[in-house]
Specification:
By secondary structure, the protein is of the alpha+beta class. The chain contains eight helices and eight strands; from the N terminus they run H-E-H-E-E-H-H-E-E-H-E-E-H-H-H-E. The chain is globular and about 55 Å long.
């Protein structure tokens, strides 16, 4: 990527991120379809179903911020991950009802479920509430190559320490992320899901090398050094575990 293209991408990403900081927190839904390596190419049928049937049905149901990803590096690989966003929990519920009443989708779902072979092992669902400081889902600007995404989850000992970590993000950490090139897609507090209390967020990079460079820049930032030294905001006090996975967007994913 040339310096001019890099600057244009950064400016566009910064503009989108600023827009994300406006409005009430959205309701996000992450769904993970667990796969297994097998001779029958598990996941191929699921991928086609997500592209041909589920994505159009979600769009008809009012879902926004759609993303479809495959696991690249991380625990429990292989799996597929989908992202949906809605203006509110009520809008999510309405979207689910509209899916249930969508005759075309329900017929396609029935055919998918009756197809021979196993399409996936299990799926799990996580519902999150967007942060006040980054309430929406922000898609990266158009790319010339395949991007890399990183899903990170921070667990806390209790609701109070999780609230402190979320406040830390809202009051400085997100801004330092953006300043050092760590560009978010979303931030959310898990309200339904496993390993609570926790928060989860998604970042994007143009390459693995860019990821390493931007994290190095963040870690060495004087602003980050000062922020993490704030009494009560050290990782040891408010974060009990961090897990992460690297993802690749599917070809048909709106977020890519």
């Amino acid at each position: 990527m040339t310096r001019r293209k890099m600057m244009a991408t950064t400016m566009a990403a910064g503009s989108l991120a600023a827009e994300a900081a406006v409005g009430p927190p959205q309701t996000l839904l992450l769904r993970r379809y667990q796969l297994r390596n097998s001779s029958d190419a598990m996941g191929a049928g699921l991928t086609k179903f997500l592209e041909v049937s589920k994505k159009p049905a979600l769009e008809r149901a009012g879902a926004q911020g759609l993303g479809f990803f495959t696991s690249f590096i991380g625990p429990d690989t292989p799996y597929l991950l989908t992202l949906e966003s809605y203006p509110s929990f009520a809008a999510l519920e309405d979207g689910m009802n509209r899916l249930g009443a969508d005759k075309k989708f329900q017929a396609e779902l029935a055919a998918f479920n009756k197809a021979p072979g196993q399409r996936f092992v299990r799926y799990s669902t996580q519902i999150l509430k967007g942060f006040a400081g980054f309430p929406g889902v922000v898609a990266p600007p158009p790319a010339t190559g395949t991007r890399l995404f990183e899903l990170r989850t921070y667990e806390s000992d209790d609701a109070s320490t999780l609230a402190d970590k979320i406040r830390m993000f809202n009051e400085g950490e997100i801004a330092i992320f953006q300043k050092t090139g760590l560009m978010p897609v979303f931030f959310g507090e898990t309200v339904i899901g496993e390993k609570q209390p926790n928060l989860t967020y998604l970042l994007w990079y143009d390459s693995l090398a860019a990821r390493e460079a931007n994290w190095s820049k963040f870690v060495s930032s004087p602003e980050w050094t000062k922020l993490k030294s704030t009494p009560g905001w050290s990782d040891a006090e408010i974060v009990s575990n961090i897990s992460n996975s690297l993802l690749r967007p599917m070809a048909f994913s709106p977020i890519k």
